[in-house]
Each structure stands twice: as C-alpha cells, then as structure tokens.
From TrEMBL:
Superkingdom assignment: Eukaryota
Keyword Protein transport annotated: no
Transmembrane segments: 545-565, 577-596, 616-642, 654-677, 683-702, 774-795
GO cellular component entries: membrane
Main location: membrane
A Pfam family the protein falls into: ABC_tran
UniProt subcellular location: Membrane
Molecular function GO labels: ABC-type transporter activity; ATP binding; ATP hydrolysis activity
Keyword Metal-binding: no
Region (Disordered): 126-163
Membrane disposition: Multi-pass membrane protein
Entry protein name: ABC transporter domain-containing protein
UniProt family annotation: Belongs to the ABC transporter superfamily. ABCG family. Eye pigment precursor importer (TC 3.A.1.204) subfamily.
Length: 815
C-alpha cells in the first residue's frame, strides 16, 4: 500500500507516572502517513518499555491512549517523527542487525555496521488506523490516573519541546523538557547558583609522545555551554575527552600545549579560585567520616567566613546532590568499614566541589564504574543541579537511552576530531544525514560509539567468517576510519557547524561579567582544620596507629621476656646493648605497617591540592601535628614495658629520656616512610624500599661491628651518619651507662663508658645524648622538608609507573 509523506520531526519526552518514584524516560517516534483511501495511520515506537498499546480517537485533536496496566493510562497529543515508509524500510533493514552506512553524496548498499542480536529480537513498528488530520508540530504530554475508561486523576504536567536551533533567549532550554526531579529531602529550598557561559574556538591541544601517529590530542574543537544546561563530551577511549575537559578548566599538565581561545562570559580572562569546580574520574574520599563531616571539613578548608555560613553551604550541597538520607552515614569504602555505594560516593565527590558554589562544574566521567540504576540516578541528580543554574560540562564514554535523553548538548570526539556539536536530537539527525541512521532497537550512544570506535574493526575481523542462517551476523565492508571521515565532512558542511560558530560569535562579541574569586581560608585555619581532621580520622581507623600499637606491644613483650633478668653486672653489658639494638631496630621496622595509611593521606592531599583546597605546607604540618599524640602514645607504652621488663636503671629522668628518644626515633621513621611513599605512590615498591633501607641502616648502626671499625667508604661515610638507628641507639646507651660504675673484683671498678666501649662506640661527654636527640629531631624535620619540595614542585611523578613504562617500552623495542 502506497504511503504519502506528510512531514517528520523527532521528539524525546519524559513522563512521570503515578506510583513511580522517579520520572520514567520514554523516547517516542510518532509517525503519520496519509493513505490513498483517505484513512490515516499512526506508527509509534516506544523505548525502552514495550507494553501492549491501544488507541482511541478524538474529534477535534488526535489523542492516543496507551494502556500500560489496568490502573495507569497515558494521554498524549501526538507529533510527527518519521513517515511510515521510512520506519518500515528501516525495520526491514535492521531485522538483520545492521544499519545502512554511506556517505552524504552516494549510498553504499553493501556497507553495514555490525550488530549482534538474537533472532526475532526486533519488533515491527505498530500502526494504527483512522487518525484525523492535524498540523501542529509541537507536542504536549499529559498523564491521567484511573481505569481504562477512566477520567479524572492528578494534575497535568505540561512540557513544551525545545526547538532544535539554539538561541540566547533560551539558554536554559535543552533538546528535551526537563523531568520533574524530587528534592533531596529537607524542607528548605536549595539556593540558586549563578552559572556562567563558556565557549571555545579552534581549540587544539598537543602532547609530545602522547600518540604514535600525531601529537594533537584535540584538533580545532568548537563549542559552548550555557548556564542551566548539561553539555557532554562523548567519544571512545583515547579520543581526547578528558584532555578537552582539562583544557577548558585550565588544568593541562606542563607537557601539554593549548592553542585556540576559551571564553568565560565572553571574556578570555582565566577562572579564579572558587569560580569553577573540577571532579576527577577517581577521587579519594575519607571513609571514616560521615558525609556531613566530610563536606563540613571541606567547607572549612575552602571557604572564608563564619562557621554558620559554612554549615549552610554544606546543607545546600547535601540537598543538591540528594544526599540527605546519607548525611550521617559513614562514607566507608574499606573491607572492614561498610559505607556508601559507588554511586553515592560519586555524588559525595561532586558535592565537595559544590561547597564553593561554582559557576561552572567540570566532571570527568560522572558515570565511571556505575551500574545502570546508579547512572540514571546520578544523571537525574545532575539535571536537578543544572536546573539550579549551574553550568555543567562533563565527559562520558557511553550511556543508556534514558541517560542520553537527559543531555542538552553533545560534543562527539574521535581521535581528537570533532564529529558533531549540538543538541542531542540533532546528533541523531546528523548521523542519519551522513548515512548512518540509528537502528530502532539501538541505544543512540551505543550507535555513535559503534560508528566511530576503531576497536570494532578488530572485532569484525574476528567475526568475518561467521555465518548465520537468520542473518544476525552480517558482513561489514566499510572501515570505521571511512565512517569517521564521512561524519566529520558532513558536520563541517552542515548547518549545525555554522550555528555553533554563530553562537560562539554572539557569546564573545560582548564581554559579560567577569568571574571573581570568592576568597579562601587562611593558612592557620587550614592547618588547624587538617590537624583536627587527622586526629579524628586516625582515632577512628585502626590501620593508622592502633594496629601498629598492638604490634609494638607484642614486639616489646617478646623482647622483654627474652632479655628479662639481666641484672647490672659487668657481664650483662653486651646483652643489654643487644636488647636496646633489637628494640629500636625492630620497632622501626614494624612501622612500615603504616605505609597504606600514609599513601591514602597522600592521595587525599593530591585530590584536594588539585582543586587548591590544600597545600603542601598545610598538609605536612597538619599531618605532623595530628600524628604526634599517637606516636607519643606508642612510644610511652612500648618504652615502659621494655624499660621495666629488661631492668634498666631505676631513675625517672633516665626513663623520660628513654621515652623521648624513642619518640624522636618514631618521628624520623614516620618522615622516612612519608618520603618513600611520596616517591613511589605504591604499597609494594614503598614497602620493599623501606625494608631495604632499614636493613642497611641496621647494618651500619654500629652493633654488628663498631663504627670505628667499619669500612670508611660507603659504610661509614655516609651510611653510618645518615642512619637514624645510630643516633637513637647511641643516645639510649649513653643514657644507660654514662655515670654508671661497675666493680671489677673486690678492689677495682670501671666506669660505664669503659665497660661499653668494647661493644658499642659512645661519647664520654654526658651531654652527647642530647646532641643525638637534636640530630634525630633535625632528621625528622629534614625528611618532611624533602617531602615538601617533592609535593610543592611536583618532582615525584609516580616513579614506579615510569620505570615500569620504560621497561615495557624496552621489551617491545627488543621484540
């Protein structure tokens, strides 16, 4: 039967059904044809829900009722999308799981994309007879509650579709009407955020050695983002998504060079602190804090002002990200500390940036490692955040149909080339115009990535010999590179590219309001906040110091029972020296158990420092002050047990020196571990390096061989003098033996210095033990000073990763 084309226009709408807690997204392809017999038909494809449908006609306007259940009816005023002839031809084509791919100028019938589906998985469009005439291209959706025949119900939510072409008068409009999003709890309304427009023109980013075939990671990209909208940068892996996002945020590494122009509110001025937020793909959170505590400490670090003001912005951030139900719940994330799920943790990381109430928020992969439900909830939350006025720009690899319908604009990249920029529905039309229409049962984002991802060529090569009687596996003759060139050429010559340039010109012809810094907390405030937060975290997580305290007590009890009852005779001197050496050396070695906690602190610092929430100096001071109470507790508890079980001299001043000396030893060891962890940023390599260093320091400490007898090169200079074991053990032995007198026979006695000099080299000066303690204190600060230089000037770029990379390159070159 012949069909006559009347017109076509695509729409995506969201409906909220009664009884559903969240808006349920549906994509309607509503098609109208006029038959020769003067009767009319309507074809409808409903994604992703495929329930039985029935139709009832109206007299003045066409109204179709789709019955989802016995108690839920949906009433829609229909719009035109595609003709019956187009949908019928596509259905016949995609039944074999492939879509036609051709250039804009000439069709290539034998070139198909490869999709794997089960036989019969694709249904025919449903057609309905006797549809009256109508000409209005706009759409209005309503829902009614009641029975099948039923009238009455709840109030109607109207949603007017947004035109395809962008305009400055409707900067808050997207390619679809925003869904109704429930508030995150609480009776108070969330305050609006003053967004800012951002536009980029001919943006090119180069990185030396980033790619084998080209140093250009991003090539001549154009685009823009408006307040109150979500602009997504989509593409396959290594397409330049994250690089483009970092370039817009001004966070490119030193090895990258950017060419082109970036405008914020029409001005080329940079974005000052607090005017924008950037969320990394993987952010480190503090699992032992609740959501409210974590955000509150972040506000204290970021914001100036009074405490009650900071509490207000924290509550706003909690409500904006729908975290009210989890505000008093531990973040968790450890095997021994259950907490939030991945989607909730991701929202907490975004809420941390919302504390500053940024005008523009950049997010790298907000759906990273999220399941479909968490991804949809995340995007609905971000849609609500955009409705508050914030400008959202983020990257994404792929999305479901529901998530895709929430995007306002899309920037499609492949190998750094911009294949499309515009509204989401226009992207579907762009692929169709280029000869790659989206299959009926295919997700738009999956179809886009299928067309532009060169990795599919390898899959096709593996499956080229497969045969299927039902036609589910089709031969593929078009290379992905050809499809990419076709899409790029089609976009450059399209009206979409011209409209982007026009919009950028309008946004940049006049400078708007320049963004100003909102100020930041002072250095003293941030040191106090980090110190208190460190104390709280260390007291809650047993792996920081409580585990080490238990290990120290076990070690001390073992040494104490092994060397108990030595007495104070001359014959016990050598054994007493061995006991002190074993205590200091093995206790320092057990401190390596704190490497995982130090690595986590460094990761948290890196996450905060990247957004200027913290600095190297305040981090080191806060970590140092926060660790002092726990290190002193470990020192005094272990020293008391060892001191009395071994039976050292019964003098309170000597006992206090023993405690302080061992405390300084722990401070030095903590600084050494921080230094090694800062270099490697890896548990395995840090542990291996520290064990090797401790073994070498123990050998050079002067117990196995007196320091004067050690070989001068290497062992004496410099190992014996850079080993903190040397100064700690020497100070403790001077504290024990200087001033002591031992009887030799009945008439002769010798001093403690003479008694020990054959077993260990110490100074006869009574003040030398304090010099040894000052050396330990200087070493404790010296290691932290080196760490400060590494963190401040970025000299530690994951050494282990670089060495492994060089090793792999050498292996590949040798092959």
């Amino acid at each position: 039967m012949n069909n006559k084309v009347i017109g076509h226009k695509p729409w995506i709408k969201y409906l909220k059904f009664k009884g559903f807690p969240h808006p349920y997204p549906c994509i309607f392809h509503i098609c109208r044809t006029q038959r020769v017999e003067s009767s009319h038909s309507l074809a409808l494809s409903l994604f992703p829900r495929r329930d039985s449908l029935s139709l009832s006609g109206g007299s003045t306007s066409f109204r179709s009722r789709f019955v989802f259940s016995s108690s839920l009816n949906l009433t829609i005023t229909c719009v035109k999308v595609q003709t019956m002839e187009e949908i019928q031809s596509q259905s016949d084509l995609y039944r074999s799981s492939s879509s036609c791919a051709s250039s804009p100028t000439s069709r290539v019938p034998s070139s198909h994309f490869f999709y794997v589906r089960k036989p019969g998985s694709l249904r025919q469009p449903i057609s309905f007879e006797d549809s009256p005439e109508w000409d209005d291209p706009d759409a209005r959706m309503e829902y009614e509650a009641g029975g099948v025949g039923g009238g009455g119900g709840d109030s109607i939510n109207d949603a007017t579709a947004t035109p395809i072409s962008p305009s400055l008068s409707k900067i808050n409009s997207g390619s679809m009407a925003s869904p109704h999003v429930p508030e995150g709890g609480g009776g108070s309304a969330v305050r609006k955020i003053a967004g800012a427009s951002i536009a980029w023109r001919d943006l090119t980013v180069t990185m030396t050695g980033k790619r084998k075939y080209s140093d250009k990671v991003v090539k001549s990209s154009n685009g823009y983002a408006f307040p109150g909208t979500m602009t997504v940068i989509m593409g396959p892996a290594k397409s330049g998504k994250s690089t483009l996002l970092r370039a817009l945020a001004g966070r490119l590494p030193p090895s990258a060079k950017m060419y082109g122009e970036v405008f914020v509110n029409g001005s080329k001025s940079y974005m000052p602190y607090g005017s924008y937020g950037y969320v990394e793909r993987e952010t480190e959170l503090i699992g032992s804090l609740t959501v409210r505590e974590f955000l509150y400490y972040s506000a204290l670090l970021q914001l100036p002002g009074f405490l009650f003001q900071k509490r207000g912005v924290v509550e706003d951030a909690i409500q904006a990200m729908s975290l009210s139900d989890y505000a008093n719940k531990l973040i968790g994330g450890h095997c021994y500390m259950k907490g939030l799920r991945s989607g909730e943790r991701r929202r907490v990381s975004i809420a941390r940036e919302l504390v500053m109430r940024p005008h523009i928020l950049f997010i790298d992969e907000p759906l990273y490692h999220l399941d479909s439900v968490s991804a949809l909830l995340m995007m609905v939350t971000l849609k609500k955040l955009a409705s508050m006025g914030c400008t959202l720009v983020f990257t994404i690899y792929q999305s479901s149909t529901e998530v895709f319908g929430l995007f306002d604009r899309i920037c499609l990249l492949s190998n750094g080339n911009t294949l499309f920029f515009g509204e989401t529905l226009a992207c579907l039309q762009h692929f169709s115009n280029a000869g790659f229409p989206c299959p009926i049962m295919q997700s738009p984002s999956d179809h886009f990535l299928r067309a532009i991802n060169t990795d599919f060529d390898r899959i096709i090569a593996m499956c080229k010999n497969w045969q299927d009687d039902n036609g589910d596996f089709s031969a593929v003759n078009m290379d992905t590179a050809v499809a990419i060139r076709t899409l790029e050429a089609t976009y450059r010559s399209s009206e979409d590219a011209a409209s982007v340039e026009t919009m950028i010109f309008k946004l940049t012809e006049r400078e708007g309001t320049q963004l100003k810094s909102k100020g930041k907390a002072g250095a003293a405030t941030r040191v106090a906040v980090l110190t208190w937060r460190s104390l709280l975290v260390m007291s809650r997580e047993w792996k920081y110091y409580w585990l080490r305290l238990i290990l120290y007590m076990i070690l001390t009890l073992c040494i104490g029972t092994l060397y108990s009852g030595l007495g104070h005779s001359l014959s016990s001197v050598a054994t007493r020296v061995s006991a002190v050496f074993v205590f200091v050396s093995f206790a320092s070695l057990l401190g390596i158990a704190g490497i995982p906690s130090l690595l986590k602190e460094i990761k948290i610092y890196g996450s905060e420092a990247s957004n200027q929430h913290s600095g190297a100096f305040v981090f080191l001071v806060g970590q140092f002050l926060g660790s002092i109470p726990f290190l002193f507790l470990m020192s005094i508890s272990s020293s008391l047990v060892f001191y009395f079980m071994v039976g050292l001299r019964d003098d309170f001043s000597l006992l206090m020196y023993f405690v302080l000396n061992f405390f300084m030893c722990l401070l030095v060891n903590e600084g050494l571990m921080l230094f090694i962890a800062c270099i490697w940023r890896d548990v395995y390599w840090s542990t291996l390096t520290l064990i090797s260093i401790h073994v070498i320091m123990m050998l050079a400490a002067g117990h196995f061989r007196i320091r004067n007898a050690l070989p001068k090169p290497v062992w004496t200079y410099p190992l014996a003098y850079i080993s903190f074991h040397t100064y700690s053990i020497e100070g403790l032995l001077e504290n024990e033996y200087l001033g002591e007198v031992f009887a030799v026979g009945e008439v002769r006695s010798i001093s403690g210095y003479e008694a020990i000099r054959g077993d260990y080299q110490i100074s006869p000066d009574t003040s030398s033990k304090w010099r040894n303690m000052l050396v330990l204190l200087a070493m404790a600060f010296g290691y932290r000073l080196i760490v400060y230089v590494l963190l401040r000037f970025g000299l530690n770029k994951n050494v282990s990763a670089r060495l492994l990379l060089c090793h792999r390159k050498n292996n590949s070159s040798s092959r």
